[in-house]
Design a protein that fits this description.
mainly alpha; Farnesyl Diphosphate Synthase; 74% helix
């Protein structure tokens, strides 16, 4: 974690330390290769934003109590599901690096990576069932289904210049926001919070997740490969048309021609990047990310004041701060 996120997540800093210690123990792989793959994944680090949201929502909905063991287990399940989705993403994208660390498919092979992802999904499902809360099981099961739907949507729409902003947001919900939304709501369910609070937590996670994905897609054009932990402009080259591209196509008709021919001619990708950077696409995407982040902050109004509520609110600022 950066010093900023460490400070931001101070209310759950110790909770996240416990989570990191528990994750490898929870895997319990009987085969050493699966165990090694899982350890490699969790050692790769990351900000642990998703389990942090669960733990902050737990504390914000029970301000006078410590998170229960079920809350902690939910946070661990959330990180396992997220990690499993990354493994499958890397296989589909044929990625060599994530967070500047070799991907499982590159370190082992695609077969091991797919099995490792399946194994993590299966383990998380088993621990989820053991929470003995049907509402929470349904919420997190929906996330796993959404991941698959988002991946299929993305694969079907490669180089599709007719992609709309709504379809982009749908895909972004399935691939990113669903986990944040449903796990935040699940935390409220475990706290026995009322329907208004649990629905507000869902909306918070949905808006934060959409802002998070939009920002990531902006950084694909404005960030360096070193900062991103993967090759810059990778999505565009593979035909995954993200929100800056969708906006830019409206202003730069030649960009659509380059995409339709799948950057088949020399220097096509560089021409496309120049057109995007000379449009308002990135700025319009910034405005959309800020809109969703602001809405996420407003979704917290029904929560009582607490350090955890404040941290959830500050997360909305942190997400968009990465593009300014």
């Amino acid at each position: 974690m950066t010093s900023f996120t460490t400070s931001l997540l101070a209310p759950v800093e110790n909770d996240l330390r416990i989570l990191a210690d528990n994750l490898k123990q929870l895997i319990g792989a009987r085969h050493p290769i699966l165990g090694a793959a899982a350890e490699h994944l969790f050692d790769a680090g990351g900000k642990r934003i998703r389990p942090a949201i669960v733990l902050l929502a737990s504390r914000a909905t029970m301000p006078d109590h410590e998170p229960t063991e079920r809350h902690r287990r939910l946070a661990e399940i959330t990180e396992m599901i997220h990690t499993a989705s990354l493994v499958h993403d890397d296989v589909v994208d044929e990625a060599d690096l994530r967070r500047n660390v070799e991907t499982v498919n590159n370190l082992f092979d695609n077969k091991i990576a797919v099995l490792a992802g399946d194994f993590l999904f299966a383990q998380s499902s088993w621990y989820l069932a053991n929470l003995d809360n049907l509402k929470v099981v349904k919420l997190l099961s929906e996330v796993i289904r959404d991941f698959a739907e988002g991946e299929i949507l993305q694969s079907l729409n490669h180089f599709d210049t007719n992609v709309s902003i709504d379809s982009y947001l749908d895909k972004s919900y399935y691939k990113t926001a669903s986990l944040m939304a449903n796990s935040a709501k699940a935390a409220g369910e475990l706290s026995d919070a009322n329907a208004e609070v649990t629905e507000s937590l869902y909306c918070y996670g949905r808006n934060l997740g959409l802002a998070f994905q939009i920002v990531d897609d902006i950084l694909d054009f404005t960030g360096s490969a070193e900062v991103l932990g993967k090759p810059a402009e990778a999505d565009l080259a593979s035909g995954n048309l993200t929100i800056p591209v969708i906006y830019a196509m409206k202003q730069q008709p030649y960009l659509e021609i380059l995409i339709k021919r799948e950057f088949s001619e020399p220097d096509d990708i560089n021409k496309a990047l120049e057109l995007i950077k000379n449009s308002d696409g990135i700025e319009q995407a910034r405005q959309l990310a800020t809109k969703h982040a602001d809405e996420a902050a407003q979704n917290l109004s029904c929560l009582a004041p607490s350090p955890s509520k404040e941290a959830l609110k500050e997360l909305t600022k942190y997400v968009v701060s990465r593009i300014y």
